[in-house]
Amino acid sequence: MRLSLLPVALLGAVTTVTALTIPPYTGTLIKGTQFPSLLDVDLEELAAGLESGLFTSVDLVKAYTARIIEVNSTLHAVTELNPDALAIAATADGLRANGTILGPLHGIPILIKNNIATGDKMNNTAGSFALYGAKQPDSTLAKKLRAAGVVILGKTNLSQWANYRSSNSTNGWSAYGGQVTAAYYPGQDPSGSSSGSGVASSIGLALATLGSETSGSILSPSDVNNLVGIKPTVGLTSRYLVIPISEHQDTVGPMARTVRDAAYLLQTIAGPDPNDNYTSAIPNNGTVPDYLAALKYESFRGARIGVARNVLEIWAKYTDAPVAAAFETAIAQIKAAGATIVDANFTAFEAWQNDNNETLVLNADFLANLKTYLSELDYNPNNVTDLASVNSFTHRFPAEDYPDRDTAVWDGPQGALTQGWDNTDPRFWAAYQANLYFGGEGGILGALERTNTSAVLLPTQLSPSIPALVGSPVVTVPMGFYPANWTVTMNRRRTLVSSGPNVPFGLSFMGAKFSEAELLGYAYAYEQRTMHRNEEEERVCTRDWVERCGEFEDWPRVLRERGTPVRMGWWDEMKEEKGEGGTSKEDMAET
Ligand SMILES: *[C@@H]1O[C@H](CO)[C@@H](O)[C@H](O)[C@H]1NC(C)=O
Ligand SMILES: *[C@@H]1O[C@H](CO)[C@@H](O)[C@H](O)[C@H]1NC(C)=O
Ligand SMILES: *[C@@H]1O[C@H](CO)[C@@H](O)[C@H](O)[C@H]1NC(C)=O
Ligand SMILES: *[C@@H]1O[C@H](CO)[C@@H](O)[C@H](O)[C@H]1NC(C)=O
Ligand SMILES: *[C@@H]1O[C@H](CO)[C@@H](O)[C@H](O)[C@H]1NC(C)=O
Ligand SMILES: *[C@@H]1O[C@H](CO)[C@@H](O)[C@H](O)[C@H]1NC(C)=O
Ligand SMILES: *[C@@H]1O[C@H](CO)[C@@H](O)[C@H](O)[C@H]1NC(C)=O
Ligand SMILES: *[C@@H]1O[C@H](CO)[C@@H](O)[C@H](O)[C@H]1NC(C)=O
Ligand SMILES: *[C@@H]1O[C@H](CO)[C@@H](O)[C@H](O)[C@H]1NC(C)=O
Ligand SMILES: *[C@@H]1O[C@H](CO)[C@@H](O)[C@H](O)[C@H]1NC(C)=O
Ligand SMILES: *[C@@H]1O[C@H](CO)[C@@H](O)[C@H](O)[C@H]1NC(C)=O
Ligand SMILES: CC(=O)N[C@H]1CO[C@H](CO)[C@@H](O)[C@@H]1O
């Protein structure tokens, strides 16, 4: 598969791109100026190139498209390209020529997760054939991107149904999009569920991407793909026409290579939406803060920053030595930058480990919210109107890979259909109150309050669960990489590398609701002092994909044959330990 396909891919690239020749890693001279490397370029460099006429938005669409096609057969990060992207880019170029710039992202290609609806030729499927060919209007976020002049370049692959289907599937697999793999080790588990968004942003298949999170789905793939990820407060960004899991926990946010780029994207998508009443909670009558203005090198000076020490201790077994060591170094750097560091323990964390109310809440929301989403479709080719009909479609449609990938999150012992009651049931309120306690007084919000801190730190791997319960924000920034001699392990199916050399990891800043501006200030101050992202030059497989990594396409098979041991990803392990989900415990992972 490997070498024979390559010339075809390269030929495709050459014919698609006229203004540029491809190798985007090293940069290409255009009119005597270096075209930026798509792997590293940031928004301000792209905007400067567009402004000076070095290249056009049409050139960018061609360059990114060629790159997507070049790596897609290996990584499966992008499920479909927008057939209108070139026309949209040409319109953006025309407006620019006329002196009209719609915003900082004018003419910039962005990829979005395949659960954010667009009213164009693209499908919005959550990776399921049940929704292939369905028609729907633009989501509010798609409208906002268009109004800002963004070129929506395509849709990214994901863990199917945002990982709310199966107890024995894999991160980044969908029936519609195949299996995503990440770029830092051949066959690397991309984590999920915003798997394609993570991989696409990490290797420059667009400037940046949008992902969605219910519990970990932005943070976790950002962690293992060397990215800045923003999991916004639930209600800061509209979920209207985003395929849901839970109205109480779902949120959409940016996945980018720099804090600044992520902030630009958040600025573009945040704000009130009459179609999503959770956005009415945005403070100051819906006025979104200036996130760019918050990016200050001296943000830590005089700040009180907490560390959730007891979480680190209780979950020590999930934190590998290189991650723990990098975390202590990060704390020292933040202290040296002027912050006071204090313990900010999550007092009910131990008790929460034995609580399973989150499953009840997510099941109840999913039953109700999925039904609402399906009722909003303009065309529903398979007549799926609720979870029961999606379940039966999945069982009978061969490409959905049932029963080898089961539907335990729906019809298993603790599944949503088995539960049978939704968020209008009196039992919902009690379950939700338990969540609010474990995330609130007993979790992140209580810790912030008691210790008078403005952010709490954890390695990103440990950070998503508690903020998910209350919908509070988290920002992750690259913190380091596993060492070159790190032992390779595989996922449970032995189809992906769950841990291995050079796999990245991040640092999370967790804050109070709607404190994104402060969190971004800290994230920026940490990023600018450390710039771990840039260490990837030596590591990312795709830098010279053809020479170095293309030949490893079947690497998981080689590893299997060598008897490489199984060790589930840290997130899967901790969820299994906690006992969430259906028959087996991967089903709650990274939703
Ligand atoms: C991605 O690769 C698959 C083959 O693995 C192909 O069917 C699909 O069309 C590709 N998608 C894009 C956007 O190139
Ligand atoms: C640019 O402005 C000119 C003059 O107002 C107008 O004729 C033309 O259609 C505009 N082009 C675009 C692409 O907006
Ligand atoms: C969307 O799905 C339809 C099938 O109904 C398919 O023909 C079309 O190519 C898909 N769109 C894109 C952009 O892949
Ligand atoms: C939003 O509206 C729904 C139904 O109209 C209601 O149940 C819910 O409580 C509202 N949520 C908020 C945060 O106002
Ligand atoms: C809040 O915003 C709405 C809509 O923009 C406006 O009509 C209203 O006057 C504002 N209220 C206050 C108190 O500023
Ligand atoms: C909380 O910390 C801030 C500094 O971050 C300080 O200005 C303030 O006085 C403290 N408040 C209390 C109640 O300790
Ligand atoms: C936080 O938890 C750790 C570990 O359990 C403990 O050693 C420490 O004393 C706690 N800190 C505070 C301020 O309670
Ligand atoms: C939910 O929370 C209540 C109240 O704390 C508790 O009694 C119950 O056991 C919890 N349910 C589950 C499924 O964990
Ligand atoms: C969906 O329902 C419509 C109208 O009832 C019917 O014509 C169509 O055949 C159904 N499609 C499927 C796939 O069941
Ligand atoms: C997944 O679970 C289903 C149902 O228990 C089972 O039939 C199937 O063999 C499992 N697949 C794998 C790969 O474990
Ligand atoms: C990896 O190398 C470090 C020193 O660079 C050494 O301390 C460690 O034991 C090695 N680990 C393995 C698994 O070989
Ligand atoms: C839409 C799309 O690109 N689908 C492809 C995703 O990858 C699988 C293989 O893993 C192909 O079979 C699909 O055609």
Look at the structure and name the CATH superfamily. Answer: Amidase signature (AS) domain
Largest sheet: 11 strands, mixed
Physical arrangement of strands within the biggest beta sheet: 3-5-4-8-10-9-14-17-13-11-12
Q: Which ligands does the model contain, each kind named once?
A: 2-acetamido-2-deoxy-beta-D-glucopyranose
Bulk shape:
globular
What is the straight-line distance between the termini? 32 Å
Integer count of domains: 1
Poorly predicted runs: 1-26, 542-547, 581-589
Structural class: alpha+beta
What level of helicity do the residues show? 25-40%
Bin the strand percentage. Answer: 5-15%
Task: Quickly count the helices.
Answer: 24
CATH class: Alpha Beta
Instruction: Label the CATH architecture.
Output: Alpha-Beta Complex
- By CATH, the topology is Amidase signature (AS) enzymes
Mean pLDDT across all amino acids: 90
What Rg is obtained from the alpha carbons, in whole angstroms? Answer: 22 Å
Organism: Cryoendolithus antarcticus
Signal peptide: 1-19
Protein name: Amidase domain-containing protein
Keywords: Signal
What does this protein look like?
There is one protein chain. 58% of the residues are buried. The chain starts with a helix and ends in a 13-residue tail after the last helix. It is of the alpha+beta class and 591 residues long. The chain has one domain: Alpha-Beta Complex (Amidase signature (AS) enzymes). It has an eleven-stranded mixed beta sheet, sandwiched between helices. It has a two-stranded antiparallel ribbon with strand order 1-2. A two-stranded antiparallel sheet has the order 6-7. The protein has 24 helices and 17 strands. The site of one 2-acetamido-2-deoxy-beta-D-glucopyranose has 3 residues, from loops.
